[in-house]
From TrEMBL:
Annotated InterPro entries: BLOC-2_complex_Hps6_subunit, HPS6_C, HPS6_N
GO biological process per UniProt: lysosome localization; protein localization to membrane
Name of the featured protein: HPS6 biosis of lysosomal organelles complex 2 subunit 3
Domain BLOC-2 complex member HPS6 N-terminal, first and last residues per copy: 3-384
A Pfam family recorded for this sequence: HPS6
Cellular component, GO annotation: BLOC-2 complex; lysosomal membrane
Domain called BLOC-2 complex member HPS6 C-terminal: residue spans: 410-788
Organism listed in the record: Poecilia formosa
Taxonomy, superkingdom: Eukaryota
Length: 791
């Protein structure tokens, strides 16, 4: 429903020179001499209109005043840069009224004051802003009691132009103090704010001066990818860009060489592709409204934060001939694109109304009522009024503001729920409460500015919900700034801190989607050493020096680490799972920790902190073995780690596999150690290990020094028959006519080697068998003769 309407204030007939103004404004668009609305200036009190005539040698007519003492003044002749107004109430000098300053390209500045008593504009003084007569002013503004301008220096007076890039750095930004008192203008000495810089458009807003790149230059260089903000009060520069919500860097204004000022930021800026600025308007309190070629309207705040306000239609494509006008009114932004007027509430970005205009218009402010939009068109001056209430103009009342703020709390979270639900792969319905508690809200930048203007109880609750996110964001942005400002060692330290925070944050999250997992993989790839240190911090790993690892990390962290791998080959996925990433880091930086890390992971998995085991889930030791086989490591080291991983798994088949690898490598001492360690684990495993060892004993004599240890491992239920059958089954085939006595250096098994084992087994049997007694021991005396019996 249409709420606001345009109310006509004047049709120009009460202004002197209205006929000339009407003729200029109603020229055909094809007329080359037609003035642009952007060349029209309206004084702060709305009584005076100045028109800049860009054509050279255009004479300024002498105009009479109307009874209402309103006038239209045309200024032509020498090329004019701009006309602006000094507010004497805020000037250091005394007096009231409006002083118009006309600045020419050649550096001349005319100070005119309108005197009611003398009925007209009177020239107070003409001054030279620039020191050089060859300098050319390209933009100018007034900030408090300072005149600030950007001038082009001749090549001979600037640094030698060695390249096309340096040739564009022939400008400088200057300032002079300005006081108007008792009809006199006092200009201070010229001071250079910045030199060796590109062409800047200087815009004043409150106590700040913004230096925007030339909108017409379209330079494909780093120097066109950012803008500067100069604070006279703090004597500092701030580097910002339209693609980042926070300032890139803040520097002291003591460094006035533009090239040195941005030297440390060039590498970072070269990788950016910021949107172009189509239009701008100062807010009057230090900020700036920016319309970008993406259709987004942004608000640059006094603290340097850049936040989105409003998005034009998706089909918005800025053209060179598209008329735009932008203005700020306390808590409302007005934007004219073509013949459409958009009204937006700056605090929350809500569109208040869209009004179709009959003609193009120019927005301006009136110091008597800064909350109400005023508009100039070829037919007159207008203001935007509320048609539903008498005397009420645009802007929210306190009651409406409170109501709007109360609705804002739930509206923000409801919209966020819809946004995250669309991006989520989970079928679980996301609620406002789960969003507040889950730490998933990711829009603290935009809301920080909104909340500043809403301080009632409802918004305080919202602020509490976002406090953690905001603190984390501020800390992260401070780290980013440190990376830009610091030296090599500081960058390394800050980079490690940044990686640590990111790794800890990701491993502590409730779940990792595909995008987050890819991000974690990239961190481990680009910063391997810092990522490994961060992983130790996240898992709170502690090595006690005796070969064991311990962890005091929360169960949720281990649950994230031990997320099951869906198939037997992690490489088939786009990114490695977390466990595989950590195993890679362990092998790279602490390879000796890998078996202990596997044991620790299995303990956590067994305590219910890891993913649930299922038929399709790959055991952790096999995942660790896959990582080991995929890395380019020393063969001997890799085989040693494979054995340790198999043993650390504690699985019978893995232990037997490790034992076979050691046997193939003929590391018999290690074989016996493993056998002694794991035979106690279970009777079945004891039998398998003993059988394997007895087979080796049957085939060679290399285990002779360890036979006593091996015989001690014989299972309790083994009999002499069982042992002899195993031996006979595994003895290698001999020659067709073996010698009756084996060669002392032969590898063939002798019965004497088995004698201690067989004796031990016979002694264990409850009913000893005499079947092999003659083999085991020779009688000391001849056996007694059998008793004779009568035949």
């Amino acid at each position: 429903m249409s709420r606001f309407v345009l109310e006509e204030l004047s049709d120009f007939k009460d202004y002197a020179g209205s006929q000339k103004l009407g003729d200029l404004l109603t020229f055909s668009k094809d007329e080359p001499s037609r003035i642009k609305l952007s060349d029209v200036r309206v004084s702060p009190d709305g009584r005076h209109i100045h028109v800049l005539l860009r054509q050279p040698k255009h004479e300024r007519p002498q105009l009479a005043l109307s009874p209402k003492k309103l006038d239209v003044w045309f200024k032509g002749g020498v090329s004019i840069v701009d006309v602006f107004y000094l507010d004497l109430l805020h000037n250091k000098g005394k007096g009231t009224g409006v002083v118009a300053v006309v600045v020419y390209e050649n550096g001349k500045a005319e100070f005119w004051k309108f005197l009611d008593c003398k009925t007209g504009w009177h020239l107070l003084q003409t001054s030279d802003l620039c020191n050089s007569p060859r300098a050319r002013v390209v933009s100018v503004c007034v900030c408090s009691s300072l005149l600030v301008w950007c001038e082009e220096r001749p090549a001979s007076e600037s640094s030698p132009a060695l390249s096309s890039t340096r040739d564009k750095l022939r400008y400088c930004v200057c300032r002079r103090d300005c006081e108007v008192e008792d009809g006199a203008v006092n200009l201070g000495g010229l001071k250079i704010i910045l030199h060796n810089n590109p062409k800047f458009t200087v815009i004043s807003s409150g106590d700040y001066v913004h230096l925007l790149p030339d909108l017409k230059a379209k330079l494909q260089l780093c120097i066109s990818k950012f803008f500067l903000t100069w604070s006279p009060r703090h004597d500092s520069f701030t580097i910002s860009t339209t693609c980042k919500n926070t300032p890139i860097k803040k520097l002291s204004a003591k460094e006035s060489d533009f090239r040195r000022l941005i030297a440390d930021s060039l590498g970072y800026l070269s990788a950016l592709e910021p949107p172009e600025i189509c239009s701008f308007s100062p807010t009057g309190c230090g900020g700036l409204l920016l319309l970008l070629n993406t259709g987004w309207l942004y608000l640059l705040q006094e603290d340097g934060m850049l936040r989105r306000v409003y998005k034009l239609a998706d089909n918005f494509t800025p053209q060179a001939d598209t008329h735009t006008s932008l203005c700020f009114y306390v808590n409302t932004a007005a934007l004219i694109v073509g013949k459409t007027l958009h009204l937006m509430e700056v605090n929350c970005g809500r569109e208040l109304q869209k009004i179709a205009l009959k003609r193009e218009g120019l927005l301006y402010t009136n110091q008597a009522d800064r909350r109400t939009p005023f508009l100039l068109s070829e037919t007159g001056l207008f203001m935007l009024a509320d048609k539903d209430s008498t005397g009420k103009v645009l802007g929210l009342s306190p009651a409406e503001s409170n109501q709007s703020g109360a609705v804002l709390v739930e509206a923000i979270f409801e919209e966020a729920c819809k946004y995250y639900q669309q991006r989520s792969l989970s079928s679980t319905q996301l609620t406002v409460e789960s969003l507040k508690k889950g730490g998933r809200f990711q829009a603290p930048i935009s809301l920080a500015s909104i909340l500043r203007n809403y301080l009632n109880s409802g918004q305080e609750k919202l602020m509490c919900s976002l406090e953690g996110e905001l603190r984390a964001l501020v800390a992260l942005e401070e780290l980013k700034g440190s990376l830009v400002r610091g030296g090599v060692k500081e960058v390394e330290a800050v980079g490690g801190t940044l990686v640590e925070k990111e790794v800890v944050r990701l491993l502590s999250s409730s779940e990792l989607d595909g995008e987050a997992l890819l991000y974690l993989n990239s961190i481990f790839s680009m910063f391997p050493s810092q990522a490994w240190s961060a992983a130790q911090v996240a898992l709170q790993l502690h090595h006690n020096g005796e070969g064991s690892l311990s962890s005091r990390a929360a169960p949720d962290v281990w649950k994230m680490v031990l997320t099951p791998c869906p198939n037997s080959h992690p490489a088939t996925n786009a990114a490695l799972p977390v466990f595989e990433l950590l195993c890679q880091s362990v092998v790279r930086f602490q390879p000796g920790w890998l078996p202990r890390f596997l044991q620790l992971s299995q303990q956590q998995q067994g305590s219910g902190r890891g993913g649930e085991s299922g038929e399709n889930n790959v055991p952790l030791y096999r995942r660790a073995l896959w990582v080991l086989s995929s890395l380019d490591t020393d063969t001997e080291q890799r085989q040693g780690l494979e054995v340790e991983l198999l043993l650390a798994s504690g699985r019978p088949n893995a232990i037997l596999q490790a034992l076979r690898i050691l046997m193939v490598k003929r590391q018999w001492e290690r074989v016996t150690q493993v056998a002694q360690q794991f035979c106690k684990q279970s009777p079945l495993l004891n039998k398998e290990i003993f059988n394997a060892l007895l087979c080796e004993v049957s085939q060679h004599r290399e285990l002779d020094p360890y036979l006593d240890l091996l015989w001690a491992l014989c299972p309790e239920d083994y009999t002499v028959t069982t042992i002899l059958n195993l031996v006979l089954k595994n003895i290698p085939c001999s020659s067709p006519s073996p010698a009756p006595f084996a060669d002392p250096h032969s590898s063939q098994l002798a019965i004497g080697q088995l004698k201690p084992l067989l004796r031990k087994v016979l002694q264990r049997e409850t009913k000893p068998s005499q079947r092999y007694a003659d083999i085991l021991q020779s009688p000391l005396y001849p056996p007694p003769a059998l008793p004779r019996q009568a035949t």
